[in-house]
Amino acid sequence: MVYAIRIHETGGPEVMKWEEVEVAAPGAGEIRIRHTAVGLNYIDTYFRSGLYPSPSGMPLILGNEGAGEVVAAGEGVTNLSVGDRVAYAGPIGSYAEERVIAADRVVKIPDGIDDKTAAAMMLKGMTAQYLLRQTFQVGPGTTLLFHAAAGGVGLIAGQWAAHLGATVIGTVGSDEKAELAKANGYAHVINYRTENFVERVAEITKGRGCDVVYDSVGKDTYPGSLDCLKPLGLWATFGQSSGPITDFNLGILSQKGSLFTTRPTLFSYIATPEALASTAGDLFDVVAKGIVKIQIHQEYKLQDAAQAHTDLQARKTSGTTVLLP
To answer: Which of 219, 244, 263 is the last residue in one of the domains?
Structure first.
């Protein structure tokens, strides 16, 4: 038996319980992992609260990201061996000391990248990769706005986008977070608590607007995000930390300049083993080269995951957080 964080009903952090669970032997095409580090992500709160439905009913082990060591391999697994270090983002179930997972949903961790770093960057880093390299091809001449610039995805995206030659604008909620964003690739940082971000973007871009706005905030930044775009610009809304956007009217896109919008998810971009390997490989490459530095700003014991959720939702955290079994 091992321990895991489970919920038996949806709700606030108080529904998270540290419980003994049984982990089966891996079946065909599966491996068993002993976690050495687990990533904390905002999407975890969506499953806990019920905003996103449980994929497997109740009770549910939370968590979408982890790293560790292969301790057993099922029939037909030829690309991994006991002792290999691996990491993954999804499927749900990482808030556990050990788990079973499909072998084609994990990737080997390259030498030179430690387990904590791998666990901290898989979901956030691959999210930054698909946003910057697939959803919109960021490059020299691109002007972009990234909300929550001091968050886990934001800090990775700022460094990566600056390396690609973009003019990178970010929003944050405090002066402390503004300094953090400036140190991670953001040429312009807007404190949305003291400044109107739509007006500031207009000033920064001399009225031209941005090519793309990356928005994980949701309700609080809508429809302002659309007003930051140039005609034919793209609004990529990939989260809703302030609450969901309701009653979205497609007509507003034409009114504001024939805009494009998309609601992407990482799991669509890594749906096949080939896509997962390519996306993770691109991330590992920029991290190994020092282009993107993964900064772990908070660590909690896995059994204290409820406190981590409380702090995350209170916006008391910045950058990346890991949970340690």
So the answer is: 263
